[in-house]
Specification:
globular; two-stranded antiparallel sheet; Rossmann fold; alpha/beta
């Protein structure tokens, strides 16, 4: 785990700035396709990935930039991929939803709701067979918890004691559908008991609480004690996608959740509990903002993929 408390904040700010500046690029019609913003959920990705190494794997969902950044994907190739450029981490083939970097354990995003769960279970089985102590993490939303792939993955993971951490980022809405209208039990983590594995509800806006809970789950998985289901209670600040009118929830609800901003909460910890100087934090924030701006400029100035390379990397050698 990271020992430098400022490094945790740097990654949270990197996600925050990526989302804010990419949203701005989208508003100026510079971004191709949709943006599914991770704004408001920064503590989830950073808290979980802080306990992982490059040999551990993650499988993301369609709101995956936070996971990519937290796992250590290089910023310029990641941002260029978002724009579908040839300099992207996947050569522009993955785009906003499907970036991957196996060298650091990022096995990709998934535009199918719940589609990443069985893939992460496969990676966990591979790690178990390899016997070197690696673990796999599946990030998914509350909507995916009502899909068949959720129950199937929990069942096989528990039966085979797979080194798998199932991370449900419960932001209360499956696209435009409120979770409260689709379940009788709002705590998704409680479902774990029915499959014979531990489940834990965590404040997903508290990066230190997420980090501690993820650390316990990762430790269990590395020790051969099987999977854990973590439910991180959080909130996406924007809609399902940029431009979503958000008629299915109130502005008052949004304002109340923004008062619990995960970035501001951890910033206060740095100032009050860790005694880190305000000027030092502000300097870091400025550096991160400049770094993201440079990555976006790089992406905008990068070439599009050429048609002749369309079939490259389709088949394994």
């Amino acid at each position: 785990m990271t020992q430098d408390p400022l490094e945790i904040y740097r990654k949270m700010m990197l996600i925050r700035e990526c989302e804010a500046q990419l949203n701005d690029a989208f508003a100026r019609n510079l971004f191709p396709g949709y943006i599914h913003s991770y704004l408001g959920q920064e503590a989830c990705a950073v808290g979980v990935c802080d306990g992982l190494s490059d040999t551990d794997t993650i499988v993301s969902n369609h709101r995956g930039r936070g996971h990519y950044v937290a796992k250590g994907m290089a910023l310029k190739p990641m941002v260029a991929e978002m724009f579908g450029k040839a300099t992207g981490i996947c050569g522009g083939r993955g785009g906003e939803m499907h970036a991957a970097d196996p060298a650091i354990g990022v096995l990709g995003g998934n535009g199918i709701v719940g589609g990443g769960l069985p893939i992460a279970a496969g990676a966990a089985l591979s790690a178990q067979m390899d016997g070197k102590g690696a673990v796999s993490v599946a990030f998914f939303g509350d909507g995916a918890s009502n899909n068949g792939s959720f129950g199937e993955t929990l069942n096989v993971a528990a039966a085979w004691k797979l080194p798998l951490i199932l991370v449900c980022e419960n932001n209360l809405y499956a696209e435009m559908t409120p979770l409260a209208r689709t379940v009788g039990q709002p705590d998704i983590a409680l479902r774990a008991a029915g499959y014979g594995l531990p489940g834990e509800v965590v404040d997903g806006n508290d990066v230190l609480a997420v980090r501690e809970a993820a650390g316990r789950a990762i430790g269990r998985a590395r020790a051969g004690d099987g999977p854990t289901l973590l439910e991180l209670k959080t909130y996406r600040w924007g809609g399902h996608f940029e431009g979503d009118p958000r008629k299915y929830r109130t502005r008052e609800e949004e304002a109340a959740w923004k008062e619990r901003c995960p970035v501001a909460r951890y910033r206060a910890v740095l100032l009050d509990d860790r005694g880190i100087d305000e000027a030092r934090i502000a300097d870091l924030e400025a550096q991160v903002a400049a770094e993201v701006a440079e990555a976006i400029t790089f992406a905008l100035e990068s070439p599009l993929p050429v048609a002749e390379t369309a079939l490259t990397k389709v088949f394994a050698a």
